[in-house]
Amino acid sequence: MVKFATSREFSQEEVGLALRNHGMHLEGLRYPITPIGMHYLLIHFDIPFIDPTTYELPIVGRVRSPLRLSLGDVKARPAVTMPVMMECAGIGRAHLSPRPVSAPWHDEAIGCAEWTGTPLRPILEEAGLLDDVAEILFTGYDRGIDQDVEQHYERSLPLEEALRNEVILAYKMNGQPLPPQHGFPLRLVVPDWYGMTSVKWLKSITAIAEPFEGVQQALLYRYKQSEEDPGTPVTRKYPHALMVPPGIPDYLSRTRHVRVGGILVEGRAWSGFGTVERVEFSSDGGRTWADTELGEPVGRYGWRGWSYEWEAQKPGEYELCVRATDAAGNRQATNVDEVWNVGGYGVNMVQRVPVTLS
Questions:
Q1: pLDDT tens-digit profile of 286-315?
Q2: What is the percentage of the chain residues whose pLDDT exceeds 70?
Q3: Is the separation of the CB atoms in 202 and 106 below 8 Å?
Q4: Any idea which architecture 240-357 has in CATH?
Q5: Cβ proximity of 130 and 61 under 8 Å
Q6: Domain limits, the chain
Q7: Is residue 26 a contact partner of residue 242, using CB atoms and an 8 Å limit?
Q8: Which residues pair with 321 in a beta bridge?
């Protein structure tokens, strides 16, 4: 059962989640690769302590030859390094009304790190998947209670998704060993999908013949319009563009103050449905839009930079907005009715940044 808040005030529980799970500072959008300390975090339960010297990852279930891989075994396999733009499925939840009571993200649940690991597919092929395998289940060492059920955090991928060549078991982040909070010693990284899919602190990988019905799959991370609605699963990231808030902020309110003149507005855009092909900027709250200049994508699964020269000549109050359109024709939502759902997932409303021009 999801609780809702009808006021703008955040509960003690929400504040606690916000303190424990930090977002990326939006000025960090200037970095093509997000520094580790800036990358967003969502930790459902506790960070487990795992000894890398004794760590083993079993690959079991509907396989002909079960495997047990040490961390050394994983690192000895062919390695790939790639930037991946990661976004929490709960991004934008705090903009909704009524607001689902959970991690109260605004626009900052993002990061684009460079992950190093080994592809999952050859490991599954070595284990020998049986013909009836439908999904691959990933279980983490983190354990807790959610929806009144005690559980390890675990989620599955359809077999065809798990066999994508770009799905990796990662042991490095930005060239460094995984930090504890990001899944040390080994985590899953699934490009294009929302971050809940990239299970951290991997405990086991299990080939299963039936759809996984665990809490994090069947009850949560589903687009539902009511509690009774079974909903549809949250999967790939919707198109999203964000700007570096221009000017300087007021300390408490974060209201932006900008000087009259030519202002370079810049940011990043991404989508799980293909390359972002258009980013538009508005200085009047979305009444009129202008195309921005696009940069080169940061790898196939990273984000794409954009910039716009705003000729801000008249003092006053402005609301800056930005929106993205991807190669599949998907465009960001412009109002809350387009994105509201019970869990507050996949909210990709256009960013709105009030500024005072003087």
A1: 999 999 999 999 999 999 999 999 998 899
A2: 99
A3: no
A4: Sandwich (2.60)
A5: no
A6: 4-233, 240-357
A7: yes
A8: 282, 352
Which pTM value belongs to this model? 0.95
Amino acid present at 87: E
List residues bridging with 278 in a β-sheet: 325
**Fold assignment, 4-233:** Sulfite Oxidase; Chain A, domain 2 (3.90.420)
- Quote the tokens at residue 288: 């009129």
**Contact present, 165 and 207 (Cβ < 8 Å):** no
The tokens of 54 are what?
Answer: 């004794």
Average pLDDT (226-252) is 95
CB distance 355 to 246 below 8 Å: yes
* pLDDT for 1 beyond 80: no
Q: What angle do CA 181, 232, 333 make, to 5 degrees?
A: 80
